[in-house]
């Protein structure tokens, strides 16, 4: 699958470059349609990468009788001049048994790129606990930036900044074993994900490690 992902990503990036040349060369309509196709390929590459990540983590020690909680979807509202975007993340129990006593800490931030610095979660505010997420069940969290500044979108579009969604999910399986999922998603920087979408960041993702 890795080879397929690289090919799709490479072709999508090439098509985006061609679209830009066509657009600025005078044929704007054709450039837009070519760019749309390239963006669709990049979105496909991101989806394949996410599927590879989830399948690889779950297949290593797969137990059909336990819960598996991970990010199911994430996105960003459309760019609107200097307006602050609304972001969201959805998590899902992909296992066959309930995830008991689930706790989810989620955060979003804008960082300059590539100097993104450290990521820390607010542990001073108590997170909701004792929630049981049933098999196939989902949880949704949405937030609008309150410290958005003029010029952020321009930096993101140039790759000089990025929006990150990051967090951790802890829960227990039927044997009371504590499970943990850490995630970090990115839009901007060198991710090349389409507008309104998040891709998987290179670092900050893990499953079944101790959350501390």
List keywords for this structure.
single chain; 3 helices; 2 domains; three-stranded antiparallel beta sheet; Immunoglobulin-like
Describe the structure.
The chain is built from three helices and nine strands. It is α+β, with helices and mostly antiparallel strands and 212 residues long. Helix 1 packs antiparallel against helix 2. The radius of gyration is 19 Å and the shape is globular. It has two domains: 62 residues; 149 residues, Sandwich (Immunoglobulin-like). Strand 6 and strand 7 form a beta hairpin.
SSE inventory with pairings:
Blueprint: H1 2-24, H2 28-60, E1 69-76, E2 86-93, E3 99-112, E4 131-133, E5 138-144, H3 152-158, E6 161-172, E7 178-188, E8 199-200, E9 206-207
Antiparallel strand pairs: 1-2, 2-5, 3-4, 3-6, 6-7, 7-8, 7-9
Helix pairs in contact: 1-2
């Amino acid at each position: 699958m890795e080879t397929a992902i690289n090919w799709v990503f490479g072709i999508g990036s090439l098509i985006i470059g061609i679209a830009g040349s066509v657009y600025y060369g005078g044929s704007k309509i054709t450039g837009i349609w070519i760019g749309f196709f390239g963006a669709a390929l990049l979105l496909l590459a991101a989806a394949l990468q996410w599927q590879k990540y989830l399948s690889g983590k779950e297949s290593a020690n797969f137990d059909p009788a336990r819960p598996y909680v991970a990010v199911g979807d994430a996105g960003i509202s459309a760019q609107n001049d200097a307006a602050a975007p609304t972001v969201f993340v959805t998590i899902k129990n992909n296992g066959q048994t309930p995830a008991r006593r689930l706790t989810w800490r989620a955060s979003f931030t804008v960082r300059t790129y590539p100097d993104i610095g450290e990521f820390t979660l607010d542990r001073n505010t108590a997170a909701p606990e004792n929630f049981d997420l049933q098999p196939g069940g989902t949880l949704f969290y949405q937030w609008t930036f309150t410290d958005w500044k003029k010029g952020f979108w321009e930096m993101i579009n140039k790759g000089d900044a990025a929006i990150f969604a990051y967090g951790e999910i802890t829960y227990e399986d039927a044997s009371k074993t504590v499970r943990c999922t850490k995630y970090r998603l990115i839009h901007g920087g060198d991710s090349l994900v389409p507008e309104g979408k998040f891709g998987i960041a290179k670092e900050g993702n893990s499953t079944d490690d101790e959350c501390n």
